[in-house]
Amino acid sequence: MDRPFLDLKVEGPLRGVLRVPGDKSVTHRGLMLLALSEGEGRLLYPLKAGDTLSTAKAMAALGAEIAEEGPHFRVRGVGLRLKEPEDVIDCGNAGTLMRLLLGLLAGQEGLFAVLTGDASLRRRPMGRVVEPLRAMGARIEGREGGRRAPLAVRGVPLRGLRYTLPVPSAQVKSALLLAGLFAEGVTEVEEPVPTRDHTERLFLHFGLPLEKEGPWVRTRRAEPFPARDLIVPGDFSSAAFFLVAALLVPGSEVTLEGVGLNPTRTGLLKVLKAMGADLEWRVEEGEGGEPVGWVRARHSPLKGVSVDPSLIPLMVDEVPVLAAAAAWVEGETHIPNLSELRVKESDRVSAIAQNLRALGVEVEEGPDWLRIRGGGVRPGAVEPFHDHRIAMAFAVAGLPVGVRVYEPQWAEISYPGFFEDLKRLCAAS
Ligand SMILES: O=C(O)C1=C[C@@H](OP(=O)(O)O)[C@@H](O)[C@H](O)C1
Ligand SMILES: C=C(OP(=O)(O)O)C(=O)O
């Protein structure tokens, strides 16, 4: 069977300045909250990629008016009472969309909606949001007793909940906080391990009820609120591919500008520093409550490390590209606490191990850990396993020696134009 592929090899160092597309997590949430607001607001520099276009369509199906305005979106909100969708909502490949939407729809009294997604999303665990939402009173049914999509939601009155997250997941936390906006009483979520806090920051940006106390986050029923413009920072998870590429290719120096540097997202910077990376960054401004700044990476000899397990939730989407760096270091890298990676768009632990082996790297795979022997890779072909992050991470792993990436179009889920940006930085030398 003929499959699309892309052959990549650097001709020289990566040099230059880049602004990566908008943050995926902030774009999903910005579209949802603007859809719930009254009046019109703009989402400035959002991510326009597979996942977030699914969110724009979903919110339009629920009654929001969303128009493109150059690089931006202009959103006319429906207010707190959404419209019943006329058809099934297709969440595509986006776990964030499906989980947050379940929370948003659970308390829309009388509204009926069915959510589905692509083959990958229909395999992913939904019980983690369905169970606590049911404890709030939600009526959600689906395959496997509600653990897999397609899922049907019938909006009903909800009551607040006091809940401790059993897995570190910003999606579960956010689904419950969104449901809490429509619930009687207080909704309280405890996270024993911190995860990305974009929902909390955006609630504050839009004037929605939110309190933080140690590991607890609380919200309560929302009053109608006005729309407000929101600037979306560059996505640190997208920037990470260029930071690692610059570290690996001799002579490189790359600066990423306008990138989100929220400390709940930047665990990778700490790990790369510990590996010996020449990295500098500065937080310059805050947009919509999000820290934004620049990061510069210069080619560096790297050494293996044992990653602190508590950093994994702060870099959960950057593990594939960390594995790419680990293939090039001197010594061994141990990456623990990876059970959540088994239930992403692909089983990322297995996808990482298989692609490293395809590039001649020695790797040991445990149930929730990887041990990677550094020393460099040999030219080879890599398989994205229908997963955007795997496609981009292994393009970077093989870049210094030459790599064939099958089905490179998967990158478009979070970063249309990724390969063009990568090639442009190499040619800029
Ligand atoms: O809340 C979010 O926007 C996200 C949370 C993370 O998922 P989990 O909540 O499953 O950890 C992350 O992997 C995903 O890319 C985006
Ligand atoms: C896990 C990811 O996204 P989601 O869960 O929204 O599909 C990701 O972007 O790496």
UniProtKB/TrEMBL annotation:
CDD domains: EPSP_synthase. Residues 12-422 form the Enolpyruvate transferase domain. The keyword Transferase applies. The active site is at 317 (proton acceptor). Its main location: cytoplasm. It is an enzyme of class 2 (transferase). Coiled coil: none annotated. It comes from the Bacteria. The keyword Cytoplasm applies. Phosphoenolpyruvate binds at residues 24, 95, 124, 171, 348, 389. Pathway: Metabolic intermediate biosynthesis; chorismate biosynthesis; chorismate from D-erythrose 4-phosphate and phosphoenolpyruvate: step 6/7. Gene3D superfamilies: Enolpyruvate transferase domain. Keywords: Amino-acid biosynthesis, Aromatic amino acid biosynthesis, Cytoplasm, Transferase. 3-phosphoshikimate binds at residues 24-25, 29, 169, 171, 317, 344. One of its GO terms (molecular function) is 3-phosphoshikimate 1-carboxyvinyltransferase activity. It catalyses: 3-phosphoshikimate + phosphoenolpyruvate = 5-O-(1-carboxyvinyl)-3-phosphoshikimate + phosphate. Catalyzes the transfer of the enolpyruvyl moiety of phosphoenolpyruvate (PEP) to the 5-hydroxyl of shikimate-3-phosphate (S3P) to produce enolpyruvyl shikimate-3-phosphate and inorganic phosphate. Belongs to the EPSP synthase family. Monomer. This is 3-phosphoshikimate 1-carboxyvinyltransferase.
